Amino acid sequence: MSQVGKDATGRFHRLPRTARLSVALVGTAALALLTACGGDDGDPPSAEDVPSEGPIAITWYGSDARNAAVQQVVDNWSAENPDVQIETQPTTFDSYWDRVSVQAAADNIACVAAMQSRYQARYEDRGNLLALDGLIEDGTIDVSGIPEVVLESQRAADGHIYVIPYGIWFEGATLNVPRLAEFGQTPPDASGSWVDYVDWALGAQPSMPEGTWAIADRGDQITQFQAYALGQGETLFGDGEVGFSEETLTSWFDLWTRAVDGGAAPPPDVNAEYAGVPTTQSLMAVGGVLVSSTGDNNISDVQIALDQNGLGTVSIVASPTDGVPQVVGANGWSISANCTNVAASADFISSFVNTPENATILETQTGLPPVTSVLEGLQEDPEVSQAIKDRIALYFDLLDQGATVDVWPDGAQALVSQIATSYQEVAFGQTSSQSAAADFIAQANAALSGF
Amino acid sequence: MTTLAVARRRHRIVPYVAQRTFIHVGLVSAAFVMVYPLLWMTATAFRPSEQALIEDSLWVPEPTLENFVQGWSAVGQSGFGVFFLNSFIVAGLAVIGNVLSCALAAYAFARLPFRGRKFWFGLMIGTIMLPIHVLLIPQYLLFNALGWVDTFLPLIVPKFLATEAFFVFLLVQFFRLIPREITEAGRIDGCGHPRIFLRLILPLSVPALTTAAAFSFIWSWNDFLQPLIYLTSQSNYTVPIALSLFVDSSGTSNYGALFAMSLLSLIPVIGFFLAFQKLLLDGISTTGLK
Question: PANTHER family from the entry (chain A) (predicted)?
Fold first, then answer.
């Protein structure tokens, strides 16, 4: 009979060799875990402290057209830095996060990795990214042209900045003013709330032809619910839980049920038919609705579709937050904690953000450039389309009104699809708005708590 | 033949013809419903890209090859020629690895008496129930430590280690159907296990091996997640990864090029099926695979 475990002294040596190996492996893993969880309490490194040897990998997300534009910017930087070997790793948005999450588990993220304000918190919190404060302070990464409010919004809970924004995007209400005029309607007051919009739509609907609705059903859009909650004096996220009340979400669902029941918004079966279609096929793009909401970078696609059918002109205004400053999102560059050539990575990021020619190449496909002087240069460029200039002007207005970059907590990404599911259950009469709101909040709180 | 007999026969033939016609019309209609997405994709590949998702019909009034020309070189600096080559390398070696290693493992489980055979077989079958997401991170850590990330090795080497339990199970079932008298006759003639495996079992198992090869090729050719995780350089991308780059939820998508390249990506799979159709059907029918 084995004596293992009976003698407190020398117990380890009595274990069989395979068991000893297992214990050693588990111990090493536990130590590694403790080290990883413990974080680094030291100051963020400056240019003199960072490694500067070896190749750099750059990874980002986007479609083929956007990827080609970013690749051109990378190639231009590479031409100016022939001594740095570069490997590029572009992929699509959804695939990107699948890949990065696995790479993060192995501390093998590319040196320069794109982040997004809705996703970056996970990698910041887990120690996968390098704190950039030191490189910002010594000027290695030049952020002097980025509005302070935009940069400071990126500061994580630990007080460090891990992500430098390279493209700003925001959602707003979209209006087809010429078509509204055709039907004798003036657009709704852009400074109001979604309640004002729905009230306006119910009044305008009688003058609309059959198959055209005054307003798109936005009940399933988390970003527009956020605008509504802001107008109610609440926020989307609190500390490890949602930042809004069940009553607010219930009233949001009720608001859109009222719009649909009143005939001012498409019925649920039409919404379901158009759910997930490309922007160019959306109800707004095919003239089915005259007021909606979308991301600013989608406006050009909507207009192209409207032009093909002669169905008017789309314009974008601020989200209906009832006068409360709205939030914007940001795509940004980070440097991974495992990077072996931080110096070159930092130089690339600084160049990407501050070089005016890059904005011309990218054509705002990655979002609006964060540097004010670059944006002003685009506004003065006769080659730049009016749609882009209008977006820039609106972005400046939003900043003047106090807009900030909204960095979502880890786990919050699931809310995008959860609210759509909850609202559809209400729209198809499967549950009450109050019950759907309570269920959504329970699921959201579970996601935000990390389980 | 009397007039009455002729009339009776005709009376029997008419319902028979009507019944057959009804069945065939039904089958053709059902087949059309099944094939419609493929036909629609084919038609859309030849439409101008801006009409890609607008038209439901299969008729293309003004077909164009623009999507093929543009799609072939739209993604990265490599182009689809490289992506197809990468896919052929990965899928081809996966087929060889799976067929060789799984046949060896299956022979052991089917014909070699060894201690704990049933337990190990059950354990191996149990691995089928493990979702890939459970294995992904441990495997990535291992392959990363070996320095294999951004190479084809993580996609190929495991195939040579009989890690696809489904194929082992499939071949075990087939090997068990081969009469023991044949292998015993081989033993009487002086064959050891290697010669019995190579000279008797494998030649008799061509339908099952072809089935394993076909499924291995199709799964490997269509695999998206593992190439996405392990292949980071664009020049190493396989076809499914490259196809995904045409559609992005955060920006403009190129559906015309997507359908054109998707159509091309189907050709090897369809070609494989057509070339080995008879053996595949034999293999599926004899292994009870559905």
Answer: ABC TRANSPORTER SUBSTRATE-BINDING PROTEIN YESO-RELATED (PTHR43649:SF11), ARABINOSE-BINDING PROTEIN-RELATED (PTHR43649)
